[in-house]
Amino acid sequence: MKCRIAVITDLHYSRSAPVVATRQGQWGAVLLRRTVERLNRYIQPDVVVVLGDLLDDPHETELLTELKAILDRLKCPWLAIPGNHDPAPATFYEIFPRVEYLDVNGVRLVGFADEERPEWNAYRNAAGFEQMARAAAGHAGPLAALQHVPVGEPRRETPYGYTNCAEVADALRRYGYRLALSGHYHKGRELQPSEGFSTMTIPALCEAPYSFALVTMDGDEVKSEVLSHQLPASWKLNDYHSHTQFAYCAEDVSLARSRAFAALMGVNQLAFTEHSGQLYFDRKPYWQCVFGERGIHETEGRQERMADYWREAAGCRSESVLTGLEADADYHGNLVAHPADIERADLVVGAVHWLPALQPPDRAAAEFLRIADRLCRNNIDVLAHPFRVFRRSGQPVPASLFAPVISILRETGVAAEINFHSNEPEPEFFAGCLRAGVKISFGSDAHALYEVGEFHPHLALLAEIGYDGDVHDILIPAIRI
Question: How many angstroms separate the CA atoms of 386 and 405, rounded?
Fold first, then answer.
């Protein structure tokens, strides 16, 4: 049976600025959360293994609890082993479960916590070899050895290795191990067949391009793929929908941190597009849509924060950071925003978050079309998450709306947003947009830092609908300020 193993290593998480300039360990928790969420939602491996150096400073043991809480979000079995930057195994395993081996789809994954040696090498002692033998005993399926340090000879395939590497290799062959997975060497080393087993060193999550790996074992066959979070600079992709600390529904985003993380992830332009209604109305009235009928003229529940938003956003505005609005629509399709605020925005993303009625379905579809038509004629640049209002209410998206909405977008020059935040965009709709020449906008709709510039699903959707051309031919052009 096939076993898909996601492998993460070398987070070097720290509260402090990196000692080594290339390591971005201060983002370790965010990068891990981004990896976990991508694995859960899109990749869905059979098991996840973490190969050590979760921390940069072994004395910051409290950070291990934070990382474990993120790993506990995984929807599949997982195990973690310590590296040379982590606390001693006894302390490490007070927080993480100590698992001698884990069986998944017939594959036995065996984790080792080996002794450290000078020059950042390792040594497998008698107890480690006994563990290798115990794990192999009575197991008929494939075996995979998990360790922090690469199993080869030091300063040969990688700068680091085992001082008793020949003994380790002999034991791997003798006990029938098919694969040895390691971290530690941050550049990584691709899957290498050896005599009797294969080895792979996984790149560090804390260094560009912020990678992890997917390794598939299928009997004696082993395949691998390295996946990265950082967008190549040459792609020049823009995230035109992101939130700030002003959002009532924000998790850990902020103007400063989101801007910094977007740069780290290779986002060309980041647009802050805060909910307009949340900048005019207090929390409870906003969620009750008190402005549905009277829009921006509603006086109930007002909480004026728009000036504060513009003042703080001005400090971030640049060629790579735009300041705009996600303009809520009232029940008549008018923007819940003053004209002066719309004029000030670099980008306006229009959103239908509420409908006057969601039942019966025919009426809901008609209401949506009426509101969306008016909204798109109110000088917005992008229609946010089309049809998500139906998904959030538990209703199927009316496919009958696709053609008329595409026609409205084409007529008004408004772009359609691909948005996966609590949403599953409809491939058929976006395929129709491409056929009609409607521009596309990528939006993370980030309410949490890990979401900023996460375009893995956006690109996958384009591939799903058969688009293989230059993505810039179909995306909304970069906005110059």
Answer: 9
> How many CB atoms neighbour CB 59 within 10 A?
8
pLDDT digit string (tens) for 80-115?
Answer: 999 999 999 999 999 999 999 999 999 999 999 999
With CA atoms as reference, report the closest residue to 50 among 1, 115, 117, 95: 95
Measured between alpha carbons, how far is 18 from 260 in angstroms, rounded to an integer? 15
Answer CATH for 233-473 from 3.90.1150.10, 3.30.420.40, 3.20.20.140, 3.20.20.70 = 3.20.20.140
Query: Residue 159 and residue 152: Cα distance in Å, rounded?
Result: 9
Residue-range domain boundaries for the chain: 3-228, 233-473
Looking at the domain 3-228, which fold is it?
Answer: Purple Acid Phosphatase; chain A, domain 2 (3.60.21)
pTM of the model: 0.97
- Tens of pLDDT, residues 308-335: 999 999 999 999 999 999 999 999 999 9
Please tell me the number of Cα atoms within 13 Å of 449 on its side-chain side: 21
